[in-house]
Amino acid sequence: MISEGRTTTAQRNILHLVVFLLKGPTNMAVAPPLLRPNIRTDFKLTYVDTANNASSQRMKNPLLKQPQWPPCNVLDSKYLESESGFIDSHCHLDFLLQRQGCIAVFCNPFSFNKRYMWEKYLREDKVWASFGCHPHNAKDYNDNIERSLCAALEHPKVRALGEIGLDYSNRNNCLKEVQFEVFRRQLKIALMKKLPVVVHCRDAHEDGMRIICQVLPKDYTIHLHCFTDTWEWAQRWLNKFPNLYIGITNVVTFPSAKSVHEVAKNIPLDRLLLETDAPYFVPKR
């Protein structure tokens, strides 16, 4: 049972700051509506040198350099408009700021205190936010956290609620019933505040679809974040929710990620979101 209690530092960290970093001309026709604010064109890309092992999350000293595109060409460039902007629809700026040597405009340590962290970062022109309780933290969700979440969502640069959802992988020790309750509560908040939702759904497609259908209208705007399953599952999500967009991360650069390659080859571009999920999923060289 989820009950009200004193908010600890660990619990405050649940409020999951996700930023949208955009670069490019104001012609954002290929971007879904939830990621198409008015933007300028002076954002500069930076790169960090990472460990060669794609599974490693350790960062080395940063270097400015040209990107190295992966040998796996799963998106044919002929389908992309030459004037399209570049969008990172999901990255964890709060986690990146803890990385030693990370190149970032912001350099304070991780914190979810409004006055000392995220409000300052959201003053940047090209940073937007989404707040939500990740399913890994569902057991810590309580009324205090929910009040903090609702307060954070009032910020004018918030674009969505998330990431929220279900995770049945062996990395999550939260009971399914607890995840169900926290997911429903946050979906109701999103509906009340008319915010799109960023959904994390790992090994839980049937339950995820069922709970979303119980709370949200069928045409609600949804970002299905970090999709790594099969094209068949992707089709089921796309067919069930007409305003759902599937996010593909750097996993698409892994030669072994055959299912993600298949999704990238087949998904309509107007239903696709590109995301790094940084600092996770270091691109395969």
Please specify the SSE layout and strand pairing.
Layout (H helix, E strand, L loop, with lengths): L8 H4 L5 E6 L24 E3 L8 E4 L23 E6 L1 H4 L21 H4 L5 E5 L11 H10 L5 E10 L8 H18 L3 E6 L2 H11 L6 E3 L6 H10 L3 E5 L9 H9 L5 E3 L11
Parallel strand pairs: 5-6, 6-7, 7-8, 8-9, 9-10
Antiparallel strand pairs: 1-4, 1-5, 2-3
InterPro entries: DNase_TatD-rel_CS (IPR018228), Metal_Hydrolase (IPR032466), TatD-like (IPR001130)
Family: Belongs to the metallo-dependent hydrolases superfamily. TatD-type hydrolase family.
Pfam family, one: TatD_DNase
- The helical percent reads 10-25%
**What value does the Rg take, in angstroms?**
18 Å
Mean pLDDT across every amino acid position: 69
Reading the helices and strands in chain order gives HEEEEHHEHEHEHEHEHE
Global outline: globular
Instruction: Please give the largest β-sheet.
Output: 8 strands, mixed
- Number of strand segments: 10
What's the N-to-C terminus distance? Answer: 45 Å
**Computed structural class:** alpha/beta
| Unreliable residue runs | 1-92, 94-113
**Number of DSSP helices?**
8
GO molecular function, one term: hydrolase activity, acting on ester bonds
Organism: Trichonephila inaurata madagascariensis
Binding site for a divalent metal cation 1: 90, 92, 163, 277
Protein name: Putative deoxyribonuclease TATDN2
Walk me through this protein's architecture.
- A divalent metal cation 2 binds at residues 200, 225.
- A divalent metal cation 1 binds at residues 90, 92, 163, 277.
- Pfam families: TatD_DNase (PF01026).
- Belongs to the metallo-dependent hydrolases superfamily. TatD-type hydrolase family.
- This is Putative deoxyribonuclease TATDN2.
- With 285 residues, the protein is an alpha/beta fold.
- 25% of the residues lie in helices and 18% in strands.
- The chain has eight helices and ten strands.
- It has helices spanning 9-12, 93-96, 118-121, 143-152, 176-193, 205-215, 231-240, 258-266; strands at 18-23, 48-50, 59-62, 86-91, 127-131, 158-167, 197-202, 222-224, 244-248, 272-274.
- It has an eight-stranded mixed β-sheet with strand order 4-1-5-6-7-8-9-10, with helices on one face. A two-stranded antiparallel ribbon has the order 2-3.
- α8 (258-266) links the parallel β9 and β10.
- The termini are far apart.
- Mean pLDDT is 69; it is low at 1-92 and 94-113.
